[in-house]
Amino acid sequence: MASTTVINANATSKLQPSTAAPIEPLKNDAARLYTHIHPILVLSLYAFKFPALVADPVSTLLGTLAPLAVLQIAFVAVCMPPTGGAPTIKKQKPGEKKPKGPGQLEQRLNSKIVPAFLSLLLTAIAATPLLTTTLVLFGAPVSTHHLHTLLCGAHIAILSTLPLVYVHGVNGETWRQIVALLLPMDEVYGGLIGTVLGAWLGAVPIPLDWDREWQKWPVTIVTGAYIGYAVGKLLGGTLLKGKKIMFD
Amino acid sequence: MENGDVFTPLSDITGQNGAAKVQKQERQESQAPAPGPRATIQDPDKAKRIGQVHFKAAHGIIIAFFTFILVLHILGIYLFTSGFLLTRLVLDHTSECAIPPIDSAKAYTAGDAEKGCWHPKTFDKAIVIIVDALRYDFTIPFEAQFEPTNLSAAASSPSQAPPAAPRHFHNAFPVLYETAKNEPNNAFLLPFIADPPTATMQRLKGLTTGTLPTFIDVGSNFAGQAIDEDNLVAQLKNASKRLVHLGDDTWHALFPDYFESNLTHAYDSFNVWDLHTVDNGVTEHLFPLLKAENASKWDVIFGHYLGVDHAGHRYGPDHPAMTAKLNQMDDVFRRMIQEVGDDTLLVVMGDHGMDAKGDHGGESDDEIQAALWMYSKKGIFGRTNPAYATPPANAKIRPVGQIDLVPTLSLLLGMPIPFNNLGKPIEEAFVGKKGADYENLATVNRLTAAQIHRYQHEYARARGLDESTRATALSLWASANNAWSSVGKSKSNSEQMRNVYEAYAAYQQDTLSICRDLWARFDIPRMLSGVTILASSLVVLALYARVLHGDRAEVTPVFFTRGAIGLAFGAIFGVGVTVFMPEEARSHVVILSSALYGVVGCASTFYSLKYRLMSPIPNSIWGWTSVIFTLALSAGFAANSFTIWEDEILLHFLTTFGVLALISSFRQKRIADRTLGVYHSILFTVLLRIASFSRLCREEQMPYCKSTYYASALSTTSAPWQLVIPAAAALLIPTFIKSYYEGTRNYQHNATLWIGLVLRFGLFLSAAYWTIDAADDGNWFPGWENILRITKRFLAQIVLFISLGFGYAIYNWSKPLLNVIIDRDETRKDQTGAPKEAITVLGFANVHGSRYALLITIWYLAVAVLQKPMGAGAISILVWQIFSLFEIIDTNNLRHSSIGPVVLGLLGSFHFFKTGHQATLSSIQWESAFIPLAKIRYPWTPMILILNSFGAQILCAIAVPALVLWKVKPQKKGLLSMLAKAVATHILFYATVNLATTMWAGHLRRHLMLYRIFSPRFMLGAVVLVVVDVVSIAVALWGARMSMLSSAEVFGFGG
């Protein structure tokens, strides 16, 4: 996980305990509606593709990568406030303050779609390799199944990291707090934690001797990640909103 | 180190004002209490001595308390084991020549051993040869096993796909197959299925008594014990036959004084390094006996060749040494066929097989499938079907049981069938030349079945069993008898006789399967009592470790005293109660009563101290993580899949810990802590994954696992490239350890000597050991074998002496690893006019930790030399990880948390697998006993095996005190209490695992996989718990005492 960059970033930073407020979704009707439809769409996509995933993991994971990315981009673009590039988004609720134009296409593109695609790019080049490495550290095969593991990492990255990059940008100190689980809970953060926990639990059925086709690598991990994402996003946006994780 | 050898108490250094560590008037040259000019020293010195007495007393009580826990563990494990592994009631009835079990057929008069006791005998003399570990597929030519057309046979063979080319063990021993195929009337060759456990001693019992051996006997493999139930050897002896034994001395432990002492030659059976002494000895003494002039000196020869087994243990089956050994056997038996007399029966068999690596003990197909070959020049053997003339292509076709040998040999030699026999006569030996003598076959099967019936009757009576348990068998018996009496005088090869034969065989088969079930008979009350003791002692330990609050050192005396009184009272009470009880129940009641009273006594302290009990619910993520890891792992042992994949699960949990540690490190406020924590968390996690490449797969993990521990999956030798690993460890690991010392400037004095020089030297010697070993194995220098062997053993002995002798001496007498630097500042003067001095104590930050951690490196050397090259690498990584863990615990301030001891438990278990072990009997590396010794020697051999098997757990147990001591303030209060807490938590982890595996083994006692999976895991858990208990007490806590006493010389006791 983004270790080296973060160390360098916080060597100079003086920000200590996070004072960030949870991310609020945008206050328009489309956002309010779509934020609930989105996880249903994601899970439906997954459920629809599940038989194909079990039959042929690599091509199915590859094929669903683009639809998943589109869904996630649509979600953040419709529902979430983009980072202003400034690290001080925590001070106020940026969704409300954002000067909202009369809906001109150009402005929407600049303020929403471009950050969304930047998030996708960062997810692809930074988060995916890191998460794939983490999968290998947890025991994913090294000499075989390279594409399986890589695509599994990519799915987890798009689920968990893309929205985070969109709302938090690339500020080093913010990312240290993200990795350190210091931010207060919200939809996006809950999605990250849910995805990771789900993927972690997804490893449990692999060794069982049930001889089921779906026990093969990495079906259970991806399943856990998708379900975990939906559950985490739901809980993070509602029940656990604003709560912080305490270690000690 | 010009000013470092001698130390001054800190109180002197810091002077009367007791301020920080920087000011003092004068440096004192002697460390001994100086009755010098300054009287002020006397007081702190006296206080220190009092402190020392207090410390030693408190420490002694803590040792006593943990010994009390150890006693409870041993009592619980013993009770459970005695109920769980107990199986069969041994009847001491013997069969007699004159009393056949049923009226004789054809009015044959029983009782004359010269003609044959119950049935006319066929042979006067016999040579029975065991070729240890002769697996069935060794004897079948490769072409016969893997014909291109015979794909089904290939698919059912254990090696997954048909091998492209013959292995080293193929086609090397064809004589048995050739004779059976070419002279079917003179010889036959059949698969010979062993009843597990497949250890030689259990097999010999089965092969001579015809009954199923019990599991607990595995443990007595080293010691040996005489067979006291009826058996073939005893029957022969009773009939005044002259018996000769040659080879494996296990026979003499089982049959003391049965053999003609002047002709018998026994050889040590456990030196697996030695492939030839036994075999050459057997051959040398066997052939002279075959000569005509010696024929009158003996009646039956028992020979036991061990070379094939040893070649398997040492090299694995797929090795040129195996080819050579099998070729040698081939020559021996070709010669024997020529020289054997006409009236002599020749029997050659394997007592068990070997797995893909050449080991045995379990019940996998490769381990139980041996070969049986019989030969005689009389030409009396037959086949019931012409298609059977060719020996079976694999061991699944027409196998016979090993117990079947007993009635077969007995009847062929005219002996009564041993009383407890459950086997049936082998068809080929009785069906006659033409394969049609069903009358004879029916007669011998009737005799055998009748003996089994008699035995079953007696057994049921002795055990008080109800007839209903064998109702089906009894009805089979009745119908077989009806068939027999209805046949009357019909012709012998009639279909009816065949039906009679099959009816008796069906009875035997049914009885055998009933007995298999029945003798997995468990003593449930004992098992429950054992579990009760283990569970209640676990509760006490858990309360002590995690719920008790405040200083443990001051309350431990109460725990210990009450526990000990309870133990003693319970024992007396138990003895009093059992006076009126039957013999068998006594030990059970005494043990249960003393253990439970001990637990109650100890637990009563908690009641008195209830104001000091905290909530048992964990209050942090770390507490929860420890609990979840421990409980999830323990719960998983209920499923065979999770037990099989324990190594991967441990990797998963430990990596989870690494990630959590990384997250936690990112949360640290101080940037130095954060950076150090992040670095060590990543290092810890990456090292885990690197270590995980060292694997030794158990059979059940196939085909999802690839063994890397040895050169190949079919060998037990290391590949040449693996020799680099110990050398690299010698080069790198001391440097890495040094870096952990240098961070706090503790790389001083004896640390430079030990870590920089001696440890590295020792590690290089052990790398040299494996190079010489490879030279010996690979025969790089022909003719130099003896010199190589002596040299390598000598090297290993030196390394062990360096670590446990020299290393301990350094450890015991070492001063704290400090260096005092005095800067004389001439420009500033104090009141007396002397120049002011600034004193810096280097290494102050980690006085306790650096001093104690030397102990880990000492044991590291001892453990590493006893591992194979790959295992030495895993152990080196383990040590590196242990030091990283100290830093993680320190930077995240987790000294009081349960996570450190629990992660050490997981880490020890993980590296148990990475050092080439599995929770199976066949993965015990017996040959490691011969790394430093040429032959078995007590008590060293078992200790070497323990260091080899449980080295990882031992090192982790030793590392536990350092979790607390690492970078702790020298005068920190309550260190002893923290130590006790950490050690108790560590033991708690293993005790939980042990309780879980015990309960699952007891609960799943009818499970198909009991003896393959649950029972070995239970045994592993129990042994590891006792080993960790003992190491925690004798090495860890005692080592902490040495270290803390020496630190207190300088800094005094923190209290």
Explain what the structure shows.
The complex is a heterodimer of chains A (248) and B (1055). The longest helix of chain A has 33 residues, at 105-137. In chain A, helix 2 (29-55) packs antiparallel against helix 3, helix 3 crosses helix 5 (105-137) and helix 8 (187-202) runs antiparallel to helix 9. Chain A has one domain (21-82, 104-237). With 248 residues, chain A is mostly helical. Chain A has helices at 3-12, 29-55, 57-79, 94-97, 105-137, 146-168, 172-179, 187-202, 219-237. Among the domains of chain B are: 125-398 and 405-433, Alkaline Phosphatase, subunit A, CATH 3.40.720.10; 623-1051, no CATH class. Chain B is built from 34 helices and ten strands. Chain B is elongated. Classes of the chains: A mainly alpha (248), B mainly alpha (1055). The A-B interface holds A 1, 3, 6-7, 10-11, 16, 134, 136-139, 142, 176-177, 179-182, 200, 203, 207-209, 245-248 and B 620-622, 639-642, 644-645, 648-649, 651-652, 655-656, 658-659, 662-664, 666-667, 669, 671, 674-675, 678, 682, 685-686, 688-689, 692-693.
